[in-house]
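May I ask for a single protein's sequence together with how it folds?
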Amino acid sequence: MADIAASDVTVSVLSKEEGSVKGRVFNLGLAFGNGALTYPSGGVPLSASALGCPNAIDSLVVYDAGGSGYQWEYDRTNQKLRGF
């Protein structure tokens, strides 16, 4: 099976808040391919530009709607979403 690549991640903007104290706040929906793809070693590639952030991601909070039991963290250095 193939790993999830950056091109397999679909991002949809659910809402955004302009001019908050810490900058812009976005609520995004993410979809990761077609279900046949696998989690890549080291995490899912997810760049700031793919998320609509022109500069950098200050923080990223992930709510797992599927209840997978994984804890998700964003690795800013390598621009990857990692599940533990």
